[in-house]
Design brief:
single chain, about 600 residues, alpha+beta, Jelly Rolls, 2 domains, 4-stranded antiparallel sheet, about 45% helix, globular
Length: about 600
């Protein structure tokens, strides 16, 4: 073991930040990230407060009822029982967007532009605002790391938490999302928290109170950072006693932090009161399921696994162990916070957080995870020259991997919500998607997940619904050979007393299914050899891996039903090979007619 001190290289952190920012600017321009995918999706809701107040002068959003101007798609409002509109998200992000919105709005008005809140200058302002917040996050992360680690380790860590993670993507390509901003605010909170515990000045007190209010106004679950004032630099029972003694001695300042945090929320509470009649309103209507969490899937799964798409964080988590000697007094706070944060984050009904690159809510805590990551790097650098080389090689590999995956996501080689093990393997090492990729995806079942069920819920067998008068067919390992255009699954004689045929069909998902581009499932009523009526459903490769339901209803003619039959069959017009692993067909009121 060689425990020689690490050469300082005091310039490394600053150079790392310069490299990151230069690369981010270049990538943003190359990918047109300053114009595309800026005010879109959830960002429309975060941003809606600004055009509503400063352009339409109407926070009630009543102006969107003007059907002559299609404005609703810009605001994503929720219409509640009293007929009023409510913006779904809280206004914290609008506060952070406001300076950039103001610059763009002034420019548009001065230049005679459209000034509607959504033109190119507004998108550019919000986009480059995200880079500014990333810079702030890096600066305060640097300040915090500088307290505990040599500059060389700090610089390497800063470079890694951006370039080896999905933070880089969200700063450059989807800059309107909350995560870059939360990264910066939490980095600042950690820095101020450390200062306040050393010296409870009024300046730091006011800053902490306002900052905590803003952090929770953006994402209420991030209130968990209150663990840091409680646990930071705590390593023994006696430390707890001294900490609560500090809180008691500074009780007026503690109360001030609470009051200031609540003050930040007052505009939001007044807005909810104005629109809903209540000071508190759950605009999401969605839930956490704390008894049905998805930690294993969220960390290791191929859909959005944190360690799959951001593997450097495995080292960061392992780095918590390396804090036990070097930084024992901050180990408890980081370990407890990480465990609870992961549990809460992945207890949300949509634990994969919709369409996104990797596990995006974890970006919020990268300033925190930078500390154990730096501890790991520092420990390996102190151990031996060989350990240093291995550590640097791993970090370099993860940085290359992180940027490569950012490119993959940009080109849709990594899908936003439907990745599987098969899709990941198919995409591995490829910048652009293969023609086969979309056949390997598995779309999550959002309707099932929001009820607290699995996003991969298997549909109940149709035998659960079949009565004595119903016809049920379950067939397996069905093959439509390339020389055949049709494959008959069911053929039944229609009784005279049946006027309407109703059916439910389930094609079971399987990796063995083969669905060519022109494959259809068809149900037809025939009179001798003439089709009377028909229904059809295309079977696409997107449906190959998940259970796929189909319902059809066919009206029988009121004429003579003799020699009238129902036929359910597969049809491949181009006569391509097709395979179904399992199909269930339930036809109501048709028992014993085959």
């Amino acid at each position: 073991m060689n425990s020689k001190p690490i050469i300082q290289y005091s310039w490394v952190p600053k150079v790392s930040i310069i490299i990151i920012m230069a690369f981010a600017f270049g990538y943003k321009f190359w990918a047109n990230g300053w114009q595309k995918r800026v005010i879109e999706n959830d960002v429309l809701s975060y941003y809606a407060y600004l055009p509503a107040i400063f352009i339409h002068n109407d926070l009630s959003l009543s102006f969107i009822d003007d059907t002559s101007k299609d404005r609703k798609h810009h605001f994503w409002p929720q219409k509640i029982d009293n007929g009023k509109y409510v913006i779904k998200t809280t206004m914290g992000m609008a506060v952070l967007y406001a300076p950039f919105f103001g610059l763009a709005h002034a420019y548009e008005n001065f230049s005679g532009g459209k000034a509607d809140g959504y033109t190119s200058p507004y998108r550019a302002a919000i986009s480059f605002g995200a880079l500014l917040f990333m810079l702030l996050g890096l600066i305060f992360s640097k300040k915090l790391l500088h307290l505990y680690f040599p500059p060389l380790v700090s610089g390497i860590t800063l470079l890694t938490i951006v370039m080896a993670t999905n933070l880089f993507h969200y700063a450059t390509i989807e800059p309107g999302s909350t995560h870059v901003y939360n990264f910066a605010l939490i980095a600042l909170f950690l820095w101020l928290n450390n200062k306040w515990l050393a010296n409870t000045s009024w300046k730091t007190t006011i800053s902490l109170g306002l900052l905590f209010g803003l952090i929770t106004l953006i994402r209420p679950t991030n209130a968990l950072i209150l663990l840091f004032p409680l646990l930071w630099k705590i390593s023994s029972v006696n430390d707890f006693g001294r900490r609560f003694s500090l809180f008691w001695q500074s009780r007026m300042k503690v109360v001030s932090i609470i009051v200031l945090s609540i003050t930040v929320w007052i505009p939001q509470l007044l807005y909810w009161k104005m629109q809903t009649g209540n000071y508190f309103f759950n605009s999401y209507g969605e839930s956490f399921y704390f008894n049905n969490f998805h930690i294993i899937d969220a960390l290791f799964g191929f859909r959005k696994g944190w360690f799959v798409y951001t593997p450097i964080m495995l080292i960061a988590v392992a780095g918590i162990f390396f804090l036990k000697n070097h930084l024992k007094d901050i180990r408890l706070s980081i370990a407890v916070f990480a465990i609870i944060f992961i549990y809460i984050t992945f207890s949300w009904w949509c634990w994969w957080y919709g369409g996104s690159f990797g596990s995006r809510p974890m970006i919020d805590i990268y300033a925190i995870m930078a500390i154990p990551l730096a501890a790991f790097v520092n420990a390996t650098f102190l151990y031996s020259y060989k350990a240093r080389v291995i550590s640097l090689s791993l970090i370099t590999l993860f940085v290359i991997h992180g940027f490569f995956q950012s490119l993959q996501y940009f080109y849709r080689t990594i899908h936003w919500d439907s990745m599987t093990k098969e899709a990941y393997i198919d995409s591995f090492g490829c910048i652009r998607p293969s023609e086969n990729l979309w056949k390997l995806l598995e779309r999550p079942d959002y309707e099932s997940a929001v009820l607290g069920k699995s996003e991969k819920t298997t549909m109940a067998p149709l035998s659960d619904y079949a009565g004595n008068k119903d016809f049920l067919s379950i067939q397996t390992n069905i093959k439509l050979e390339s020389e055949n255009e049709f494959f008959t699954l069911v053929q039944l004689t229609i009784p005279d007393n049946v006027n309407e045929l109703k059916s439910r069909v389930i094609i079971r998902g399987s990796s063995k299914n083969i669905f060519p581009d022109d494959l259809f499932l068809v149900a037809s009523i025939y009179k001798e050899n003439t089709i009377i009526t028909s229904a059809q459903q295309p079977l696409t490769s997107e449906n190959r891996l998940t259970d796929f339901p189909w319902k059809f209803s066919l009206n029988c003619p009121q004429t003579d039903k003799s020699k009238m039959t129902l036929k359910v069959f597969l049809w491949s017009k181009a006569k391509k090979d097709a395979k179904l692993s399992n199909i269930e067909i339930l036809i109501f009121s048709m028992a014993n007619t085959q």
